[in-house]
């Protein structure tokens, strides 16, 4: 039942969504202290066996699962099992959370103060919280919020505390541990820390997975983690990571619990705190190591207006119904369940598909602000080199057009319909005044005044063209990160539009081939469920036909009179990515012997050169995210091969014939059927 | 029962038997008066064309201070429907009903509970199922013969059968009675007066050679044979395949009910396969022996049926399951008779052919004679019970008992729901003192020991052997239980627990009168999955009911009934108020969680669809090839198993 609610391809206009309530309103009208000290009695899991933090650790250390691995490791390393147990205890110590209500109350108090200054409102769908409460009572719950900001998990706990719901335990990256005091405080508010990579460490994996499973199975607390693994710097959803999802599904698959509820949560920020930080990171300024003092430097942030936050708690998804007629659970019957086994292909693909569905469920309930639509228009204008900017009227007209289009495609747009569009536009622009410049009624991106955005302390000598370009790029990438929030709404129609554009004829089959090629090419870039090419194609066709852009009969796809504008818009949505991937192909064609590490700096240099000479229009191609995705796609397609082991560890082996051909196909110079990929 | 009485009774029985074999006496009723006791013998003789004796019932009234009625029933009949229900469980005279005062009562004289008022049952039923005494769905009282399709007779077969002198009948009642087992859907249909495909003819072979003749004739005339023993199947095994176009003959083994010999040197008995459990046990007891095989259905199920379904008895911990008890089997197949040439206790002669027979569910032939192990009757029996704070502790205790291999003859663990159910079935107590004592016990367990009445569960125990060893054994088990928080809860609770086993099937008929339907099923599983399966299957039942639109939440309960070295057997019961409902199956959940398709009920037609998954395609192929060889024309066409 719940699984069907996750995603349906049919008319997105009919999607039912809950209403929002602003939770900050009450905070502004009543005492924060009283709120922080309020009586907190959440509904708990019905099968809960209450236990303390220390008992939890004991349960992990005494579990059959861990015991098995400890014996194994002690045999392999030739040390006593006591030593290995000690090691396991140390890992657990480093990892474990120490959820304490007093710390949560402290956070509740301080965050109230902070949130009230930063944000205009924090809007929650309260019906979603009621569903969550029911879910927590019935089954172990996993919370899966989207990850766009450091704020995310503090915000989650804050909301759950406010609404008297069970506080979650949160899987956090070890990098937070660097911040001594804050790290410990987070630990006491329910975070547990995982190393970023522990690939081969059996013991670590065993402790970690057992710890998570025990908390989940016993209903100790909802388990929260980020499917995307890390914050998305581009505001596009990232390809989901499967490790933790695999772990939390395991107790159900092995029959240790009756069911598990997965609750996707979509958190959307009108203005991201880390806006410029992300852009810089994407351009190659390395991410500063998290430190407590760094956090305080961020105080400047407190004086700014960050608009509102929308948090949407989605429909709980039952793992049982996801697995129904998909997974044969009896495959676990022949091996004792405490012996760790590599998940079968069937399970992996099931977990992968589920992960995609959940990320899509997050995307669908992400609230979009009018500014997101403006970002589309402004970026497209900028790329078209309209130097003097766009007239306000024109901008408003285009935004309204885009509003209607996106709504037809099912976007969860928060456009205040009772206010005249021009006001909506100008208030959006004023919130993002750092990114736009308005002069004489004309609007454009604030590319010239970027000097002000520089980190203080840096010498401001003569600016080289390269530096100027990078400064421009910061603004463009910041702006792109807003546009990206709505890419998931347009991606399928955009792929179809580009396919129509590149296909040699209007034969449906040919367009499908071209669509399939593009979709395959960009499946590292956007959330496109594996193996769903036909559904995606049909969905795109359905939307474009419904909105009167196309007419499709048995054989042919025809563009209607009024469809040209939509198609032009949609093609330009995908265009930066198309060109970006082409440049990456071009770059690789010109290389001899390149290691994976050298790739990003080298391709960046190459792109800068092309941008400066004007051979490339889109500055956003400088985004390392795009470059990495392109490389990953090329590796997946076999055009590039990563050499593992040996002296040439990490060297990229290039198939230049294929790269050339891919570049040409992307550029529309080669028909898809004849391209190398079509044979793959 | 004083031994004199027993003796008297035996004499009477012997007398009667010889008299009955003349098959000449008309209706009779006689009373025998003898030393301090009185026996009333009721003989009913059928007026049916075959002129065959139907029922003999003997009631003995012992003259004691408190007059007790000791009942003994000797069943020797063709027309079982005259003392047994045609559309419900067991004896016609025994059933639950609500009397005029609205109190539940169990009628008849056969059971410990018989004739007693059960004050708690009504409330339990109303609160558990939201059932209402106002809403009744009575069963169709008598069989409407016109609803039964006229028999498809194979005239040539019939003609030759007549010449053999083996009794047969194509009377509608006889045929309907042998057309079903006791699955919920089967009984439900009968109550509604819906009758599907039934056998066309019933035959009563009297011995092995009769069976050989019948099978030969069936092969010759291409007639479908369905062996019928006690009729207690719960796997749709007795249902006639609706697609069967040949004449279907039900082969009723009830007349093959003799113990042919007892070998005291080797402790074996050679018995005809039609004998019913309680008769076998009683007859052996007379010689001081027992088989110790006591499935819950032993009042009605037959030896041949046990062999054909791989049955399991309550006391298997001492005596073993049927595969451990059987020494030699004789089976008549379309290819001829299969039996081993010696009675060695164990042989290495390739795969054991007995294992093709055990569990063949009537698809390969008819088991006619079985040599089985017997044991001297136990000197001493003692019931017991233990209360645990929760089900998890109970299972942990049972596991420990199995690990130490010190399981008593029987050890069963009921979950909380079943404990409450057992409680509701307590008969009215006669004295204030008893009720006071009960109150005191309850207070001790819940208040003093802090057990949560909504979580605690009970294990019932049965010890057997010589007195000293039993007492020692008892102590050992109670000591283990104590480690898992178990408190000894008395003999009486234990005994009542076992008594429940026999009456629970009667209770279903009462439920069905009030829109409550119930079903039970079993499985076996490794120890580490017991808790998970119990929880998941119960949760699945509740969820399925909800999804299917059952208005009121169901009763969903289980008990662990057997312990093994490597796992356990669990019995599930569910029941719900069905006004507007459908049936469903939890087997899928069991299999997904690592439980088996069946521990002892068998596959029948009910669970056929999971066979391939359970034993692999190769395994199916092996069974199929055996069937193809033994019975190429599908004479034994009940279509079970494969």
Automatic annotation (TrEMBL), chain A:
It comes from the Eukaryota. InterPro entries: GPAT/DHAPAT, GPAT/DHAPAT_C, GPAT/DHAPAT_LPLAT, Plipid/glycerol_acylTrfase. Residues 141-270 form the Phospholipid/glycerol acyltransferase domain. The keyword Glycosyltransferase does not apply. Pfam families: Acyltransferase, GPAT_C. Keywords: Acyltransferase, Membrane, Transferase. GO terms for cellular component: mitochondrial membrane; peroxisomal membrane. Pathway: Phospholipid metabolism. It is found in: Membrane. SUPFAM superfamilies: Glycerol-3-phosphate (1)-acyltransferase. GO terms for biological process: ether lipid biosynthetic process; fatty acid metabolic process; phospholipid biosynthetic process; triglyceride biosynthetic process. One of its GO terms (molecular function) is glycerone-phosphate O-acyltransferase activity. Belongs to the GPAT/DAPAT family. This is Glyceronephosphate O-acyltransferase. It comes from Oreochromis niloticus (Nile tilapia). The lineage of its organism: Eukaryota, Metazoa, Chordata, Craniata, Vertebrata.
UniProtKB/TrEMBL annotation, chain B:
The keyword Transit peptide does not apply. It holds the Pfam family FAD_binding_4. It is found in: Peroxisome. Residues 1-21 form the signal peptide. It is an enzyme of class 2 (transferase). It catalyses: a long chain fatty alcohol + a 1-acylglycerone 3-phosphate = a 1-O-alkylglycerone 3-phosphate + a long-chain fatty acid + H(+). Substrate binds at residue 508. Residues 195-377 form the FAD-binding PCMH-type domain. Belongs to the FAD-binding oxidoreductase/transferase type 4 family. This is Alkylglycerone-phosphate synthase. It comes from Oreochromis niloticus (Nile tilapia). The lineage of its organism: Eukaryota, Metazoa, Chordata, Craniata, Vertebrata.
